[in-house]
Design goal:
Bound molecules: S-adenosylmethionine, iron/sulfur cluster
Shape: globular
Strand order of the largest sheet: 10-11-9-8-7-6-5-2-14
Largest sheet: 9 strands, mixed
Radius of gyration: 22 Å
CATH architecture of the largest domain: Alpha-Beta Horseshoe
Number of helices: 17
CATH superfamily of the largest domain: tm_1862 like domain
CATH topology of the largest domain: pyruvate-formate lyase- activating enzyme
Distance between the termini: 40 Å
CATH class of the largest domain: Alpha Beta
Helix content: 25-40%
Structural class: alpha/beta
Amino acid sequence: MLPKGFPLETFLKYSGLALPRHVSYPMPTAWSDKDGEDYVQKLSETDPNNPLSIYLHIPFCETLCKFCACNRVILKKSFPGAEEKKRKYIDALKKELHLFKEKTQTQRPVMLIHYGGGSPTYLEPEEIAEIQNTITELFNVRPEAEISMEIDPRHADQPLVDMLGRLGFNRISMGIQDFDIQVQEHVHRLQSLEMVKSVTQSCRDAGLGQVNFDLIYGMPYQTLETVRDMVEKAISLGPDRVAFYHYAQIPDKIATQRGMDYTKLPTSEEKLEMFLEACEVFTDNGYDLIGLDHFAKSDDGLAVAYRNGTIQRNFQGMTTHRGLDLVGFGVSSISHLQGVGYWQSEKEAESYEEVVESGKLPQQRGIHFSEDDRIRQSVIADLYCFGTFDPQKVSEEFGIDAQKYFEKELRALEELSEDGIVHFREDGVVEATFPLGRVLLRNIGSVFDAYLDPDAYKVGDKFYFSVSA
Ligand SMILES: C[S@@+](CC[C@H](N)C(=O)[O-])C[C@H]1O[C@@H](n2cnc3c(N)ncnc32)[C@H](O)[C@@H]1O
Ligand code: SF4
């Protein structure tokens, strides 16, 4: 049930807009052709003491989950040639790591390593060791570094978990999505509570430390009851953090999502109820809501950093590691040099392998930030992390008069405040209201996106972002 007096009509009016979640700013649609030489050049101009964060993309999955919007390659292990395909990719990944080291000669301390996918657990334990050992040989990995992996519990047996423990992994993110059997059958992803419980326990026994869960709401056959049950089951296993993703539905881009039963999708109102219900159950059980869609135990480092105002959002979610330069390896991976730009590698495994085999780095597209990009990126990051826009902070950080610089945007925020989505605090900070503003963060963030098509802001017959000004 919605909270008493919740302005449902206002919510429905705004939530119907197709707005981005701003995992990056500027969004990839604003990026253009760039290459590895450009990336290395820009990296050489950055602070050599600034620590690095390394991301490795392992694209393979044994089977397809119908909802999946990740960059993945479905490769049944029994398929003829699968082993060779995997070996070719691992060799290319190792070669890319060597090429990067040769070209940059970087000695920068590495504070964070994350394996994502696809499914890193598609690899055999020895193959993970091969890649991880290459990283530790080439780079200055600090003993206190966070080393994490996305784990598919259906493919995380004891030898794999033990290997991660031996290699020094200290955080895992487990893909759960839902516990409900009807939902699981529909999306082609079967995994029992017992399986998740046993893998969670074996990760803890192997000293893997922190355990995060990924859940999704808004998929076909999910109801308020099944979502409540999913959240309660997840909490019963005591994860440190939970990413509670809204189902991203883009069937025109992701052909496999067209197999979902769209007649069984929950409505916007039902999805809102699911989110608010989850907020209540999580907070009643000692978790804090962080940003748009993350929960963390109140004493977890992420929740503490959230209260201190030091969390950061990155391509993998929320992190306590602020300000690191991100270097991505593998097909489609993204690198982010702070204040400088983004670079993305070839998106198809075969072209990625070809480029790397020819001795070149695989970056293909990207963007160099302008000063305006940097300012807006900082504002958007604060909005999605903390739900606030603080003009004074922005003025001090960038040496501008933010009240003037964002005159047009502040007018749009005033319109949003009339609808109860934000409120102007006495100290000058503009804050998303709870719950309405928090569930409409994209609408607030989009006000600051200079690249968005003005039509994106149209609510009814008026633009809440005054484009003529
Ligand atoms: C690369 S997968 C995780 C690792 C592993 N492949 C697995 O599924 O367990 C990353 C996460 O993205 C999320 N995800 C994938 N497609 C999504 C979609 N369409 N909407 C929302 N979240 C999605 C899922 O929660 C998934 O766990
Ligand atoms: S959700 Fe994970 S296992 Fe499923 S297809 Fe996507 S990346 Fe692969």
